[in-house]
Amino acid sequence: MSETASSQSLVAGLKRSIKDLRQSLEERDRECETHKRNIKLTQFNQMVTELNLYKQECVRLRDIAEKHVSNFINQQQAKEQME
Question: How many CB atoms are closer than 10 A to CB 31?
Answer without folding.
Answer: 10
